[in-house]
Specification:
Distance between the termini: 68 Å
Strand order of the largest sheet: 3-2-7-1-8
Radius of gyration: 25 Å
Number of helices: 7
Strand content: 15-25%
Largest sheet: 5 strands, antiparallel
Number of strands: 8
């Protein structure tokens, strides 16, 4: 191909790329925001599909008999659904009208509130916990992302329903300690209700596992 023709083609490609970048930069903020919303929805839809596929594959593996159910490792990893007696704790934003000068943030349930509730339940002996059907495992996070809360990287919205398997009386007592988390939330008008249940069903963990650095060690190496 002649050098001149190559130069023309390269020049055309370069000018097209520059134009596309300029068009994007000059696009109205609202358009970029709409594009980001669409991208977010697409990503969430793809994530939901992958989670369903992961649950299907785990269920298929368990029913095939290749993986023993009920082992301690299986329970800790959250790879099997669990049921047993326990508690359901419902938490919702305050319904009280704000007084003049009050910070609206005090009337909203934050990720820290959910984390404290979960910690109290675990201190009270909870053996398995979920929030809005998101099973909590050792790698789970309860984080804030703007105006929403993420659990296992999934967005959850009020009302928040925390399920815990364990001794209902012990867990309820842990939550209800004087000066504890329930008293704290109710002081700010946050709506909290606790129900003791003869049977609570907690789904299996639907998120992925990522271990980049940790590797299993054979038993003989540990003993040597």
């Amino acid at each position: 191909m002649p050098v001149a023709l190559v130069s023309v083609v390269m020049g055309f490609l370069l000018s097209t790329q520059i134009k596309n970048q300029r068009d994007y930069r000059e696009a109205p903020p609202s358009r970029r925001a709409e594009d980001l919303v669409v991208m977010l929805r697409n990503a969430e839809s793809a994530k939901a599909d992958l989670e369903k596929e992961l649950v299907r594959l785990r269920t298929e593996r368990e029913t095939s008999g290749k993986s023993p159910q009920g082992g301690v490792g299986e329970l800790a990893a959250g790879s099997v659904a669990l049921k047993g007696q326990g508690l359901e704790v419902s938490v919702e934003d305050s319904a009280k009208p704000l007084q003049k000068g009050e910070d609206p943030n005090i009337a909203i349930v934050h990720n820290d509130d959910l984390l404290r509730l979960v910690n109290e339940l675990r201190a009270g002996g909870a053996e398995a916990v979920s929030i809005n059907e998101q099973r909590l495992v050792d790698t789970s996070e309860i984080t804030c992302a703007g105006s929403t809360i993420l659990v296992n990287q999934s967005r959850i919205t009020p009302p928040f329903v925390i399920k815990a398997i364990g001794n209902p009386d012990t867990m309820s007592a842990a939550l209800g300690l004087r000066g504890g988390i329930i008293e704290y939330l109710q002081f700010y008008g946050i709506q909290v209700s606790i129900s003791k249940k003869t049977e609570v069903l907690i789904p299996m963990y639907s998120g992925g596992s990522h271990y980049r650095y940790a590797k299993p060690v054979p038993a003989q190496e540990v003993q040597s």
